[in-house]
Design goal:
Layout (H helix, E strand, L loop, with lengths): L1 E4 L4 H11 L5 E3 L2 E5 L5 E9 L4 E10 L3 E5 L6 E8 L2 E5 L4 E5 L3 E6 L6 E5 L5 E8 L1 H7 L9 H8 L7 E6 L2 H12 L4 H26 L11 H16 L7 H8 L3 H12 L3 H18 L4 H7 L5 H12 L3 H13 L1
Parallel strand pairs: 1-6
Antiparallel strand pairs: 2-3, 3-4, 4-5, 5-12, 6-11, 7-10, 7-12, 8-9, 8-11, 10-13
Length: 339
């Protein structure tokens, strides 16, 4: 199904889709919402137009046939796309630029004025997609004093109010960005409360993406934003640690094994698991030690089994976690067992 859209105003977009599908949309303050009719699938399309040159679209559901959204008129805004579930194809500049967004990927794009632009949403797969639009002419007035502080690429992009140049930037988005999108999708407020909340999140989303773009200009070893693919690597690092508690790799070795730089592994691990890598290993070792002691192992056997060559050091660490020495721990457990 192909829908020719009249402009880039997101509330108008939702209304146009509703008309094409022969169902009504509904308005609630700054939000226009369409419940997909059963003949076309299930889910919702929500469009927000705020008074600060920003607008936001949320699509979630599943289509029964491919939906193609086509733009061919008006001055294209700067667009930020986020694919949470499913995939989408996007072509711009009359089809000379085409790319695909996969789950957990995002893009920043700019189309040339009067050039056609197409979004292809596939059928028969769950989709969760967010689009943030920035009217550059209006927005530039508000950030005029900050433009000179932007990297040259962004400065040119925001300053191109006549849409004379096409642009595309694609990457995995950050954890912080993913959390903002989840909050937007999960919000159950109504009316002005909902619109105000979503507007704040849209501004936060824009700030995060600009920060990520700046971060990507740095060399990989200096990047500080933690992205979804970094999370997978950090979780892989944790699995490596769990399999090698007795003789865990050094942080440098672990970073190399997981395919992530050392600093991002350290900071990201603490952010995900609430503790440092060394403290995590120590805690897991001691938990294993308590089980070994309960299974009948001696204190010496247990300390060696979990990687402690110094029994006194092991006893000290054990007391820090459980509040007593290993031998006293055994006595207390046996006392409980014997009633």
């Amino acid at each position: 199904m192909q829908i020719e859209l009249p402009n880039y105003h997101l509330q108008d977009i939702v209304r146009a889709i509703a008309i094409q599908m022969n169902v009504p949309s509904r308005n609630d303050c700054m939000e226009e919402t369409l419940d997909l009719p059963e003949a076309y699938g299930s889910g919702k399309i929500c469009g927000f137009t705020f008074g600060n040159s920003l607008s936001l679209m949320i699509f979630y559901g599943e289509l029964k046939e491919e939906l193609e959204l086509t733009f061919s008129s008006g001055v294209p805004p700067l667009q930020f796309h986020f694919m949470i579930e499913g995939e989408m194809q996007h072509s711009l500049n009359d089809g000379t630029i085409r790319y695909q967004l996969l789950p957990l990927q995002g893009s920043i794009t700019a189309n040339i004025q009067l050039a056609s632009e197409h979004f292809f949403l596939p059928a028969h797969q769950p989709l969760l997609f967010t689009k943030l639009l920035v009217d550059r002419a209006e927005y530039l007035v508000k950030i005029d004093c900050l433009v000179d502080e932007m990297p040259e690429t962004l400065m040119q992009l925001f300053s191109d109010v006549e849409a004379t140049q096409s642009f595309i930037y694609q990457s995995n988005y950050s954890i912080a960005t993913a959390e903002i999108i989840k909050r937007i999708v999960q919000d159950k407020n109504e009316g002005l409360v909902r619109s105000t909340f979503i507007e704040g999140k849209a501004l936060e989303l824009l700030a995060r993406q600009i920060k990520q773009f700046n971060d990507d200009l740095l060399s990989p070893g200096n990047q500080v934003v933690l992205r979804e693919y970094d999370v997978r690597k950090i979780e892989a690092a944790r699995e490596i640690l769990m399999k090698n508690l007795k003789e865990p790799p050094t942080i440098e070795e672990l970073a190399r094994m997981a395919g992530i730089n050392r600093q991002k592994l350290k900071s990201g691990f603490k952010r995900l698991f609430g503790t440092t890598i060394n403290a995590y290993v120590r805690s897991e070792r001691l938990d294993m030690a308590s089980l070994l002691l309960l299974s009948g192992k001696s204190v010496l056997e247990t300390s060696r089994a979990v990687g402690y060559t110094n029994q006194s050091h092991f006893a000290q660490r054990f007391r820090e976690k459980f509040g007593m020495l290993p031998k006293d721990y055994l006595k207390s457990v046996q006392k409980k067992i014997n009633g």
